[in-house]
């Protein structure tokens, strides 16, 4: 058995074990009827992506779940893959082409797509390699890509089927439009930014009433040529006599437009009148549709103004056109006022330019299975963690709108629709779309494609990823499904994702699964997953979301280099309570590294303390225990081990990963290392107690490594083998099994809980004595003298443990005594006993100053905790255990302040 080195070198260990795991096929998920399956599908990162802190958190949690499932004896499969990320990838490749003075149009569609595929083969797998550095135990042999041939067939199969069922149609409606990428965008691809600009007050003269005007406010005067009406609220008394009249449009081609009444108008904004420009605003489009007003589009797809804007504006960029429009309005006397104004403007995520609400012909989907999707979550078939997200999900489904599934891109799944050559697509009716002589919708297209033209548009990226849980398991190809274990692994078990895509991805996957998975089966068989865990957003110390543009996001690979993958994993989970945003603190990542070092040193101490006996199985270790020789500390550490095991079990059941890490940290660092290892040193010197003490250490270390493995897999695998727990060719991650606490009882091991409780009281005493020394500014190693005033029963308990107490505290003497009534003293009360130290004459001033300062510090902490508990945002979101912990902390702080105030008063 190899010796444990003095210091832990994570990089060597990580490379060694990851390679060994892969070579042994440890990550493979196979159909095994003897085991219960556990399946996780990775939220596919963009093929253009690189590892971010958000990826670290999300994928660490997925790996924790999948490794825990393996330890529970389940057949675990973590399915990896990447998303083709239509607009993101096309943007990257087009940027590369511009460096060569080329565009996709100069290449043509076929050559451009060859270029994209070449780029993907060269650079598209970077993020998956980076996930391996983090320790992700995906079954890489199953890696999927949403543009793979089989996956693409699945995507197009869904389109054809939903078209035939009447769920898909073509219509001219308002979309988010990027004037640079020249495509429709999903809401998820639009970033809202505060923009400082101007708001303009413009007057429209009433026809037939010279000198009378209706005044409106607008931030976009360049769209005035597209106005088709002026609207006011029907109950607004200022306009009730004007409804039905007309006004003259003050810019662009001369036109008279009506004054209409519509309840959507805000009476309180500006003058209460609203210019209606249906082609350039979503609300205006809805109002125009209600009043049957034809839209007037004054913008070209690239954001320049067209002929309908008038000769003064035609050909100008929209922003230059805005300045020109203001100038023209001012010259005509129609501009009443302009003033600074800040509002939120939607920007294209990729092109970083303001989007345009634009009327375009697009393909739309009427969602299937909406009512079942509500029932799936409402009735508990799918559980959300935190549960509050179910309300958000259900609210969205109650107000669901049709989905624009087409994009004006070349990279993506080209829509399988063919038009008869020569047809004007903009004049096609819904009846025409269903006429096979004019339009054909099929996977292969017309048998003879001469005389037919395929649709140029591709599908929205989300229209491919919404079938991810099914298609990654081979659906709809029967042979592929059998080979992938579809019937065994579907429904998958847990999805880990961000709440920002609850609508774009989670809800849509649920509807797709209900529509296509296991037709005719009960709802519980068709849902895509059983649990959904929503991570929080990682923010910097100032509360800002981490982003490249702000430069506030550390590179995860730098953190792995600095602290090791295990250190990063342990640290990030420790600061990520369920469902709450995370304030990133690098010192907590360093704390993760320190914990790994503590674990390493504990293993090394055990190896140096005596010969390694048979550790090959739990049974072998239990057989070495001699319960008759157990002292109270032995009972206590085993009691704490069982308590920690139960707490970790509870945390996994409730998806409270941060709480699990904290429980393991507290047990291992405080109960085992700081207490049991220290009290063991004396027992290791005695022949009669040494073997039993080492067996207990071996048991605790073994069980701790099992509990910690999902969080810090590399160091636990290394120590598992160095301490002799793993047999030849066996792996902790694949072959070991968690131990249910009941197994200890069934093995005949009995724990004296009274003895364990007594140790807890002794530990509290040590804590009080150490704190007393620290308050007095004494070194931990100094041989202090303490006087204890106690009742007989309490003193008897202390007296039995005096040698241990002195050793653990660093005390030369602990004696029984009483407080001198005439001499000033420091007295600390601890229920049934008091700790006393006489103060020399002249020392009271320093003690008063010290106590006063500590009371002031406590007051600040108490105020902070009170504010936290009084914050509804915190109490509504935090798990009950976190709230209870805060309340307990508050009570302890208040009790300590009361005691310090009493002591201060006693000093006079």
Polypeptide structure, described:
- This protein is α/β, with parallel strands linked by helices and 908 residues long.
- The protein is built from 34 helices and 29 strands.
- It has a four-stranded antiparallel beta sheet. The chain has a four-stranded mixed beta sheet with strand order 10-11-9-12, with helices on one face. It has a four-stranded mixed beta sheet with strand order 27-26-29-28.
- A hairpin with a 7-residue loop joins strand 10 and strand 11.
- Helix 21 runs parallel beside helix 24 and helix 24 packs antiparallel against helix 25.
- The radius of gyration is 35 Å and the shape is globular.
- The mean pLDDT is 92.
Tell me the Rg in angstroms.
35 Å
Amino- and carboxy-terminal Cα gap = 65 Å
User: Helical proportion?
Assistant: 40-55%
Number of strands: 29
Q: Descriptors for this entry?
A:
globular, single chain, four-stranded antiparallel sheet, 16% strand, four-stranded mixed sheet, alpha/beta, 908 residues
Map the helices and strands:
Blueprint: H1 10-23, E1 37-41, H2 53-71, E2 75-79, E3 81-82, H3 86-99, H4 104-107, H5 109-123, H6 126-134, E4 144-145, H7 149-164, E5 168-178, E6 183-185, E7 190-205, E8 213-218, E9 229-232, E10 246-248, E11 256-261, E12 273-276, H8 282-290, H9 318-332, E13 335-348, E14 356-365, H10 370-378, E15 383-385, H11 389-398, E16 403-404, E17 406-407, E18 417-420, H12 430-433, E19 439-441, E20 452-454, E21 458-459, H13 462-465, H14 468-471, H15 478-484, H16 486-489, E22 494-497, H17 502-516, H18 523-526, E23 531-534, E24 538-539, H19 556-563, H20 565-574, E25 582-583, H21 586-609, H22 618-624, H23 632-653, H24 657-683, H25 687-708, H26 713-722, H27 732-735, H28 741-746, H29 753-775, E26 784-790, H30 792-800, H31 802-809, E27 811-816, E28 825-829, E29 833-838, H32 844-869, H33 872-877, H34 880-906
